[in-house]
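Memo to structure team: turn this sequence into structure tokens by end of day. - J.P.
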Amino acid sequence: MGRVEHVFQCLVHRFPMKELDEAEAVENKGIRGCIHGRPGSKRQVLLMDAETLEKLGVTPGAAKENITTRGLDFQELAVGQVLRVGESLLEITLACDPCPRMDEIRMGLQEELRGQRGWLCRVVNGGKIRRGDAIEIAGMAAAGLAAKNEERGES
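Reply from structure team:
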């Protein structure tokens, strides 16, 4: 099991991320107030692990992640898995390929991050995400939808 180490939102492109003590994940949109969240997108929330950031000497939030994790083995995660992050459910939709903007942080960082930039997610079930919250694998996407329906009292 992992935990949330940092929570960020992007207010303006190419500006530093704003760190928050807590944020609201909005169903099928992303982090409330973050300009990267879009309805229907597979790229609503970016998860990045603190261990990789530390290894590469990158400050949390600089790689434009919404959630910096600790203790979650990203190599064990896969597309279609659903993570319970605080009060929310996030479905892993695709691995994040590092973009050329990473070289604005440090020349060569785009290539260094290849294969370890993190996971992009879709918000299946909204809710608060706070620094220190647990991150658990809740199952695969179909199980995540069943859990969401169960919380709503649906079958």
